Amino acid sequence: MHRWDRGGLAKGWGGAAAESFNYKKFFEMVGLKKKSPEDVKKVFHILDKDRSGFIEEEELKFVLKGFTPDGRDLSDKETKALLAAGDKDGDGKIGADEFATMVAES
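Structure tokens predicted for Parvalbumin (106 residues):
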């Protein structure tokens, strides 16, 4: 279990039905919204698997696995919805500031 996942809460999303992912509820469940800006940035870097400085669509598909190895992959529809929610400048990826804003607004 990842240290950001309080008490294994993200694991419950591993068996959740496809199309049921709600990033606002998820961020709240794992306590991300209550984290400091520095901790949110650390989580961003964990999710940015290729270290490009952005979370791209392909990385978003596996966002639940960033919190627990048992997390399921997001569906294409869920991935695109998450990208649309976070990609404020329309460049097709989520930067660190966009991610922080998405967490703060959740």
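The CA atoms of residues 15 and 77 lie 17 Å apart.
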